[in-house]
Design a protein that fits this description.
By secondary structure, this protein is of the alpha/beta class. The chain is built from nine helices and nine strands. It starts with a strand and ends with a helix.
Length: 251
Amino acid sequence: HKVKVIVRSKQRMMESLSIKDDDNDNGNDQSNKNQLLTVIEHSLLDMSDDEIKSQLAEANAVVSCLGHNINFSGIWGHPRRLVSEAVERLTKAMIATSVQEEEGKDTQSTKNPKKFILMVSDGVAHPLQTDDPRSFSERTILYLVRLLIPPHHDNELAAEHLVKGLGCDAKSCPSLEWSIVRPTDLVDEGSTEEYTLYPKPVYSLFGGGVSTRSNVAQCMVDLLTNEELWSEWKYQMPVLYDKKEDVQQAK
C-alpha cells in the first residue's frame, strides 16, 4: 500500500521511524525500502480546500491521529477546534473526491466507499449515549475536563460530526464509511500482547486497562486491511484495550 503522511514535523516523524530524511523526499529518489511512503510537512488547517482534495485525490482511506500539542498554547491557545475542524474538512474532501471519481467511472463499476478512521480516547462518550452510564464522580470529572480542557471537547465535537453529521449507515453517506477508535490509557512499551475491541468502555475512567501505542496503530491498520474486521466496526466507536485475562471478565 502507498502511504502519504501529513505531519507538523517531518524530522520528528522520520526519526520515530528510524529513516533518514534524504531516504524520503516527497517522492524524489526514494529508496526501494521507503518508496511507498511519502511524508509531507504541513499544518492541515493552513491548507486550502483544494490542497486537501489534491492530497486525497488517490486515497482510499484516511486515518486521523491529530491532537493538540501538550503545552500551554496547544491546550488553551488557538485553534480550539483543531481536531473537529480537520475531521470536517477531511471528510468533506473525501466525499468530494469520491463523487468526482464515481462520475469518471463506467456505470458498471463497483462503488467502493472510502474509509475514515478517527482516534480519540475512551473519555469521549458515544454521542448517541450508547455507553453505559458512568459514576457520578466520573461524570463530574468529565464535566470539569470538558469545561477547562478545550482539546477534550474538541475530540467530542469531532466524534459528533461523524456520528450525527455523516450518520451511522450507508444511506446517510454512501461514499464514506467511518470508525472511531477509542484507546484507553496510552503507554509506550513495546507490543507484547494482542488488543481487544469492545463496543463501549468496560472499565472505569481511570485505571483498569492500558493501550500500547503500537497496538493502537496495528488496530487501525487491521481495520483498513481486514474487510471482515471493518464490517464489524464501521459506524461504531470501539474501545481498545491491550488483551488481558481480566478484561475478558470485565462487564
